């Protein structure tokens, strides 16, 4: 798993960690404490749910904490000549469909806004390629051939 992240992505993860630690967890701890004070814990739904939610929060905090320790910020070159982390890559499939994705680390993936993992099959196939290269992408559903039609440090308009 790649340990690269953009400055924007790192801030987002830090904000999530801080929110869980400083806001959400104390609120749940208080709720669990109040529910425990009501008596029989074995039949107290608020207590049971609160403890479950607390375990979920602690698990997420542990995951975020370990990721934040190893992540390194990186950014795309202003005028890239080959595909690298943070670049926006436009390619055309054999069918004529055009796609545009930014290669990001696994902590920032969001296909709905065009961000795919540099570790994904498509990301790996595109990495270190140049404009006009023809690439065979091996996906779980089979192979596809694509042609790189654009590489940019900022999101292009299609």
Q: Your description of this structure?
A:
The structure is a single chain. With 158 residues, the chain is α/β, with parallel strands linked by helices. The protein folds into two domains: 4-73, Helix Hairpins, CATH 1.10.287.180; 88-152, Chitinase A, domain 3. The chain has helices at residues 7-36, 45-70, 121-126; strands at residues 4-5, 72-73, 88-93, 98-104, 115-117, 134-139, 142-152. It has a five-stranded mixed beta sheet with strand order 5-4-3-7-6. A hairpin with a 4-residue loop joins β3 and β4 (98-104). α1 (7-36) packs antiparallel against α2. 20% of the residues are buried. The mean pLDDT is 92.
Summarize the structure.
The protein has 158 residues and is of the alpha/beta class. Helices cover 39% and strands 23% of the residues.
Quick tags:
single chain; 158 residues; alpha/beta; Helix Hairpins; Chitinase A, domain 3; 2 domains; five-stranded mixed β-sheet; two-stranded parallel ribbon; 3 helices; 39% helix; 23% strand; elongated
């Amino acid at each position: 798993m790649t340990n690269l992240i953009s400055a924007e992505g790192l801030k987002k993860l830090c904000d999530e960690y801080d929110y869980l630690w400083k806001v959400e967890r104390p609120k749940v701890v208080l709720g669990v404490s109040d529910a425990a004070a009501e008596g029989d814990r074995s039949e107290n739904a608020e207590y049971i749910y609160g403890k479950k939610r607390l375990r979920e929060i602690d698990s997420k905090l542990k995951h975020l904490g370990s990721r934040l320790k190893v992540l390194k910020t990186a950014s795309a070159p202003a005028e890239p000549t080959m595909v690298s982390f943070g670049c926006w890559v436009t390619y055309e499939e054999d069918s004529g469909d055009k796609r545009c994705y930014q290669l990001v680390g696994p902590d920032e993936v969001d296909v709905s806004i065009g961000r795919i993992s540099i570790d994904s099959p498509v990301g790996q196939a595109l990495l270190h390629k140049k404009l006009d290269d023809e690439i065979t992408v091996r996906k779980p559903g089979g192979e596809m051939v694509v042609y790189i039609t654009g590489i940019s440090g900022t999101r292009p308009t299609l």
